[in-house]
Structures are given as structure tokens and as C-alpha cells.
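User: Let's play a game. I give you a shape written as C-alpha cells, and you guess the letters that built it. Ready? Here's round one.
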């Protein structure tokens, strides 16, 4: 089933309304959909490199709006279901402590999930679940998703089809390594 969904998503890159399809895919991927918008972006940009920045912008805006839906899912379902259950089990204090710890590093969690292969939807829902400040969530999501989608668009615009395999197989790893080096640098500056 996932393979058929992937193939359908790929086939939509040639559709006359591909930009709208990309907006929908980027929106729902941020909260529930398993296929990343890159699957549509790559063939769309290769077909029309002059539209790379528009395609990246549509993916960014739609993804952030979808992330806000994920945030709302976490926020409203936690209050309605999770909190009463945890209170009944005597775990409300443990959850409050977890929320404080998560929100203390929330900027980094959203940034890392937004640019690496880690499922962004998990962090969008967790951000709402822990009641991360909405402004922090939105600003970090804009930075992370723009970085991811505009780097992909820039690479495809500059290098075309030859860079496609690199993006599909190694760009997530490169983003992950970048984040590890960045965090390691901050750690060294702070503690050494």
C-alpha cells in the first residue's frame, strides 16, 4: 500500500495542478501523511528549474501550516484525553516535568526534525502535546522547513538531474551530520 501511495505521489508531479498537489502533500505530511513532499518537489523542479524557488516556497508555507495542524492535534487531544488519564494514574507531575524538559530544548527538536529525515509530524504533535510556545514552534518550523526545501531546490536548480540521487539518498544524512556538528560545536563552546 505504501508503495502505491508513493507511486501516486510521484505521478502527480506531471499533473497540471502539481503545485496545488504539492501544497496538499506538504500540508498533510506535517501531521499525518507518510510520504515527504520532496518526492513531488524533485521531479517538479527538474521539469521546470526556473520555478524552483516558487516550488520550495509552496512546500515551506504548506508544511508549516500543516505543522500547525499537528501542533493543534497534540495540544487538543492531550488536554482532552492524555491529561485526565495521566492524572488518574498519578503521573501528571511526571508529565509536567517532561514538558518542561522538552520545551527547554524545543527549538532544537523542531529544527532537527524539520531538516533531518526524522519524521517532522512527530515533533509537530509533541510540540502541541507539551504546550510549547506557539511562536517558538512556528518560527523554528519556518526556519527548518525553508532550509530543507530551499537547499533541495537550490541543488536541483544548480546541478539538475545528476544531483537527484544524492538528494534522495544522502541529503538527509548530510543534514543530520550538519546538525550533529552544529550541536557538538555549541557543546564545545559552552563546556570546554
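Assistant: Ready! My guess for every position:
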Amino acid at each position: 500500500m505504501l508503495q502505491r501511495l508513493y507511486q501516486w505521489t510521484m505521478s502527480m508531479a506531471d499533473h497540471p495542478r502539481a503545485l496545488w498537489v504539492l501544497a496538499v502533500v506538504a500540508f498533510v505530511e506535517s501531521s499525518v501523511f507518510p510520504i515527504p513532499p520532496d518526492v513531488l518537489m524533485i521531479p517538479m523542479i527538474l521539469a521546470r528549474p526556473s520555478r524552483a524557488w516558487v516550488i520550495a516556497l509552496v512546500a515551506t508555507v504548506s508544511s508549516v501550516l500543516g505543522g500547525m495542524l499537528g501542533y493543534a492535534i497534540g495540544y487538543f487531544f492531550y488536554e482532552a484525553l492524555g491529561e485526565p488519564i495521566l492524572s488518574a494514574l498519578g503521573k501528571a507531575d511526571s508529565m509536567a516535568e517532561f514538558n518542561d524538559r522538552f520545551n527547554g530544548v524545543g527549538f532544537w527538536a523542531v529544527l532537527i526534525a524539520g531538516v533531518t529525515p526524522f519524521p517532522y509530524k512527530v515533533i509537530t504533535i509533541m510540540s502541541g502535546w507539551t504546550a510549547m510556545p506557539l511562536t517558538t514552534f512556528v518560527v523554528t518550523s519556518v526556519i527548518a522547513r525553508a532550509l530543507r526545501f530551499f537547499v533541495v531546490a537550490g541543488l536541483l536548480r544548480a546541478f539538475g538531474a545528476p544531483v537527484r540521487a544524492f538528494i534522495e539518498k544522502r541529503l538527509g544524512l548530510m543534514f543530520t551530520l550538519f546538525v550533529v556538528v552544529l550541536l557538538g560545536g555549541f557543546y564545545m563552546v559552552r563546556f570546554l
